[in-house]
Write a structure and sequence with these properties.
The protein is an alpha/beta fold. Helix 10 (255-270) runs antiparallel to helix 11 (275-287). The protein has 17 helices and 14 strands. Helix 7 (173-180) links the parallel strand 7 (160-164) and strand 8. Strands 3-2-1-4-5-6-7-8 form an eight-stranded mixed beta sheet, with helices on both faces. The protein has a six-stranded parallel beta sheet with strand order 11-10-9-12-13-14. The chain has three domains: 2-190, Rossmann fold; 199-286, N-(1-d-carboxylethyl)-l-norvaline Dehydrogenase, domain 2, CATH 1.10.1040; 290-417, Rossmann fold. Helices cover 40% and strands 13% of the residues.
């Protein structure tokens, strides 16, 4: 039996996917209301295919707010979220407390830390909890969660990275058997290497995001089009077809910011140079205000007297998460302007001054001076441009991710702005 302690986004998705792989699964969380909701099929999170996967594997799943429910598990994953503040600093106290509960409740289980922790976390924890033989019990495993693609990523990981006290020793049989069910390479390395591997992945992604955003902004200034350049780059073997070359509004979601902050702290403490990481953060801060700059430029000095329709509140499609949402940053940057917002899943507080939450994209457009498409939900691309024109008072569309048909917008007389291209007026 496989256990998961901490029914966060990561823990819930991982537990359901493990049941889909054929394993009996016990999920533990100290929140009784959360466990009750999950047991009754109210999953609290939105991921494509997750509810269907839960229902088809319901017989292998049980969830409890009693840590003693983990006693029968041979492997227990610690899968709670690690809280971070607005600057990306992490608080490890809740995860330490949860691990303490797990070690007491499942004294013979293999314990795998799946939560994101900084390098140097697992080894002292293992040595303190299991002195003399930490490799017998404690491991760290790199999580691969991507909001909006969590089920697919959990079901089909490219590889699994495991941190161990002794990488030369075989993994415990039940843990090894569980990992084998995913049919992908398993890399076993030192605790610290595995912990840093996760951060390394995110920093390479942050580098791609930062370089792409820098060049996309230059495209806007010199009348080039990044969408024309990116396909050519992907055919360069040194860059590759899977390179992240999509312009964005800074580094969002929380995980990348956390890892950038962690590297800065580690570098400061160890005396290494990390100025390039600070440059990534600076570029992200600049880029996240792109939409606000575009709106202010388009509306002129009287922008506070206007109304903006905002499509999309979630920080990315196929999720309800709003942490570091570009839309919320836009609304905050344009404080004083009237906002009419719509999102299929995420919610913005209707109590925020000047913000009206609507029930459809066209309702948000009614009498708006500008439309900002801040999350690339597929349903937005299906809204008829003619209907948008009829609903809006103004003729300005800020569409950073190119969700709408630019040619049709131009034909209808709209001014159009997107990332990585010159504005069309």
């Amino acid at each position: 039996m496989i256990g998961f302690a901490g029914l966060s986004h990561l823990g819930l998705v991982s537990s359901i996917v493990s049941a889909a792989k054929g394993f009996a699964v016990t999920g533990f969380d100290p929140d009784p209301a959360l466990c009750c909701d999950i047991n009754e099929g109210r999953l609290q999170i939105s991921e494509p295919g997750l509810t269907e996967l839960f229902m088809s594997n319901r017989s292998r799943l049980r969830f409890s707010d009693d840590s003693r429910s983990l006693a029968e598990c041979g492997v227990v994953y610690v899968s709670a979220d690690v809280p971070t503040d607005a600057a990306g600093h992490i608080d490890l106290r809740p995860i330490r407390s949860l691990i303490s509960k797990v070690t007491c409740a499942a004294p013979s289980a293999t314990i795998v830390v799946l939560s994101q922790v900084p390098p140097g976390f697992t080894r002292p924890l293992a040595e303190q909890t299991s002195p003399g033989c930490p490799h017998d019990r404690f491991f760290y495993q790199v999580e691969t969660l991507i909001f909006g693609r969590a089920v697919d990523r959990a079901m089909h990981p490219e590889r699994i990275i495991v941190g161990s006290a002794n990488p030369d020793s075989a993994l415990p049989a039940e843990y090894s058997s569980f990992l084998d069910s995913f049919g992908c390479p398993v890399f076993v390395m030192r605790y610290e290497s595995a912990e840093l591997a996760k951060i390394s992945i995110n920093l390479f992604l942050a580098a791609s995001v930062s370089v792409t955003n820098t060049l996309a902004e230059l495209c806007e200034a010199v009348d080039a089009d990044w969408m024309e350049i990116a396909p050519a780059l992907k055919l360069d073997a040194r860059i590759g077809q899977h390179a992240y070359l999509t312009p964005g509004l800074g580094i969002g979601g929380g995980n990348l910011e956390r890892d950038l902050t962690t590297v800065l702290q580690l570098a400061a403490g160890k005396g290494t140079d990390a100025q390039v990481v600070q440059a990534f953060i600076n570029n992200s801060t600049h880029r996240c205000h792109w939409a606000a700059r575009a709106v202010r430029h388009a509306l002129g000095e009287q922008w506070r007297e206007k109304t903006i329709a905002v499509w999309g509140i979630a920080y990315k499609p196929e999720t309800s998460s709003t942490k570091n949402s570009p839309a919320l940053k836009l609304i905050k940057s344009l404080e004083g302007i009237r906002v009419k917002a719509y999102d299929p899943q995420a919610r913005v507080s209707a109590s925020q001054p000047g913000v009206t939450v609507t029930s459809s994209p066209l309702d948000a457009c009614q009498d708006a001076d500008v439309l900002a498409v801040m999350t690339p939900w597929a349903e937005f691309s299906r809204v008829d441009i003619g209907n948008i024109r009829q609903a809006m008072k103004g003729r300005i569309v800020v569409d950073p991710f190119a969700v709408l048909d630019s040619a049709r917008l131009r034909a209808e007389g709209f001014s159009y702005m997107r990332l990585g291209a010159p504005s069309v007026v």
